[in-house]
Design a protein that fits this description.
Strands 6, 8, 9, 11, 12, 13, 14, 15, 16, 18, 20, 22 and 24 form a 13-stranded mixed sheet that branches. It is built from eight helices and 25 strands. By secondary structure, it is of the alpha/beta class. The protein starts with a helix and ends in an 11-residue tail after the last strand. It is about 25% helix and about 30% strand. Among the domains are: about 110 residues, no CATH class; about 190 residues, no CATH class. Strand 4 and strand 5 form a beta hairpin.
Length: about 425
C-alpha cells in the first residue's frame, strides 16, 4: 500500500513538473512574441514619425524614391527594420511584405499624383529583428489652408493705384472681375487688356482639354485674336484654330470661351465693367487690414502658424531660381523674383508673402498667389496663374505680363500651408 501511495505521489509530482514547465515555456513564447510585435510596432511608428517630419519640412515627394531612403540621422538598426513610403489615397489597402528586403516591401502603394501630392498617406512598415513579426501604421498628411475659402476672387487687387507700362493683360474665365483698385488705373502709354468669360461658355479650369486643347498654347489665344482685330477668342484644336469676330455664333467646330472687355492703348479706349477702380472702401484699408481681409489672420500669426518657410531675400532668390512647389513662403524684405524654372503648378501652387517690395523678372511663370506689402514692379514677360495682391500698387510694371485668375490653382492653395497630420487619420491596421 505504501509503495502504491509512493508511486501515485511520484506520478503527480512528475505531471506537476511537466505541466509547470510547459506553462513556463508557453509564457516565454508569448513574452517573446509580444516583444517581437512591440519591436515591429515601434520600428513602424519611428518610420512614420520620420516621414511626417520630412513632409512637414517641405520634402518634394515627387523627387524621392519609394520606399523612402531614410537619412543618416536615422539609427542604422531602425533603418534596416523599417520601410516608409508616401502613397496615394486612391488605393488604401496597404500591406507589409514578409521581410523588409522584399522587392516591394510596402504593397499596394501607388505614387501620389494630382491633388494627392498635397494630401498623401504616409505608410510605414516595421519588422522585428528576425522578421517573424511585422506591423503597419498609416497617417494622412496635408498642408493647412493658405486662405479662408473664397477669399481671393479677383486676379489683381490693390488699395493703391495700378501703374502699368508695356502690354499688360488680365484674364478671368471664372467671374467678371479683373482689375480692382482703391486708386486709379494709370495706363500711361501702356496697352492694357482684360478678357472675361463669354456668357455662352461654362466655367472650368484652364487645364481642361475640352476648353484648351494644348497647355503649351492655351493662354495665348487672346493675343492671336487681337492681331486679327477680333474681340473674342474662339478656341479649336491646334490644327484648325479659328477666331470669330465680335463673338458671333461660331462656325466650323469652334467653341467660344473668352470675350475681350477692356482695350486701352494708343488706338483704343474701351474700359469694361470688369475694371473696378477708385474704390474708397478698398483704398481705406491699411496694410494690416488688407492682409487680414484676404488671409484671415494678422501678419504675425500667419507668419508663425501658416508659413512653411520664412526666408531672407537672398535665401528666397536662391530657392525660386530652382523652382518651388506646394508651399507658403514668407520673405522678410524686398525681393526680385527671377529664374528659368516655373514656380508652383496647378496641382501644387505656391503662395509668396513678401514683406516689402516685389520686382518681377522676365520670363517668370508662377502658379499661385503673390502678396506684397509694398509695390509690385519689374520688367516681366511671364505669366501668373492665380492672383496678385499688392498693397502698395503696381509701379513701373513693364514688359508683357499676364495674370490668369484660375480657380483650380486657388482651390489647391487650401492645402499648401504648414504641413501636418490630419487628426483622426492614424491607423495600425490594413483595409481588407
Amino acid at each position: 500500500m505504501a509503495l502504491l501511495f509512493s508511486v501515485v505521489i511520484l506520478l503527480i509530482s512528475t505531471l506537476t513538473v511537466f505541466v509547470a514547465s510547459r506553462s513556463t515555456l508557453s509564457e516565454q513564447r508569448l513574452s517573446a512574441n509580444e516583444a517581437r510585435s512591440r519591436a515591429a510596432f515601434e520600428h513602424a511608428q519611428g518610420g512614420l514619425d520620420y516621414a511626417v517630419g520630412e513632409f512637414a519640412g517641405g520634402l518634394d515627394i515627387t523627387s524621392v524614391s519609394s520606399p523612402l531612403a531614410m537619412g543618416g540621422e536615422v539609427p542604422e538598426g531602425l533603418a534596416a527594420r523599417v520601410r516608409v513610403a508616401f502613397c496615394s489615397p486612391a488605393a488604401a489597402d496597404f500591406r507589409c511584405a514578409d521581410t523588409p528586403d522584399a522587392v516591394t516591401p510596402i504593397q499596394n502603394c501607388q505614387p501620389p499624383a494630382g491633388e494627392y501630392l498635397l494630401q498623401p498617406f504616409a505608410v510605414a512598415c516595421g519588422w522585428s529583428d528576425d522578421d517573424s513579426a511585422r506591423h503597419i501604421v498609416v497617417q494622412r498628411l496635408s498642408g493647412t489652408p493658405a486662405f479662408p475659402s473664397g477669399a481671393v476672387n479677383n486676379p489683381l487687387s490693390t488699395p493703391a493705384s495700378a501703374g502699368m507700362g508695356g502690354s499688360f493683360t488680365v484674364v478671368n474665365y471664372f467671374n467678371n472681375l479683373t482689375y480692382w483698385a482703391g486708386g486709379s488705373l494709370d495706363y500711361g502709354n501702356a496697352t492694357v487688356k482684360s478678357f472675361i468669360r463669354n456668357p455662352g461658355s461654362t466655367p472650368t479650369n484652364y487645364s481642361d482639354d475640352s476648353v484648351y486643347p494644348s497647355e503649351s498654347d492655351i493662354y495665348k489665344s487672346y493675343q492671336l485674336a487681337d492681331a486679327l482685330g477680333d474681340q473674342c477668342a474662339v478656341i479649336t484644336d491646334e490644327s484648325d484654330r479659328i477666331y470669330n469676330s465680335k463673338c458671333k455664333a461660331p462656325t466650323n467646330k469652334s467653341t467660344t470661351h473668352l470675350l475681350q472687355s477692356t482695350d486701352k492703348g494708343a488706338n483704343a479706349n474701351t474700359i469694361g465693367a470688369d475694371v473696378v477702380d477708385k474704390d474708397i472702401n478698398l483704398a481705406a484699408l491699411s496694410e494690416a487690414d488688407f492682409f487680414r481681409q484676404f488671409f484671415g489672420l494678422d501678419k504675425a500669426d500667419y507668419k508663425d502658424s501658416v508659413a512653411s518657410e520664412v526666408l531672407t531675400p537672398g535665401e528666397a532668390a536662391d530657392k525660386f531660381a530652382d523652382g518651388a512647389h506646394g508651399e507658403v513662403i514668407w520673405v522678410d524684405g524686398d525681393l526680385t523674383l527671377s529664374g528659368n524654372e516655373p514656380i508652383g503648378s496647378i496641382d501644387r501652387p505656391v503662395v509668396i508673402v513678401v514683406d516689402g517690395d516685389l520686382a518681377l523678372g522676365a520670363g517668370i511663370d508662377f502658379y499661385g498667389v503673390v502678396y506684397t506689402s509694398g509695390s509690385l514692379s519689374g520688367n516681366a514677360n511671364g505669366n501668373i496663374y492665380g492672383a496678385v495682391l499688392a498693397h502698395g500698387g503696381t509701379t513701373n510694371l513693364n514688359g508683357n505680363p499676364t495674370i490668369f485668375y484660375d480657380e483650380a490653382v486657388l482651390g489647391n492653395t487650401m492645402k499648401v500651408g504648414r504641413r501636418t497630420v490630419i487628426p483622426g487619420s492614424w491607423r495600425d491596421w490594413s483595409i481588407e
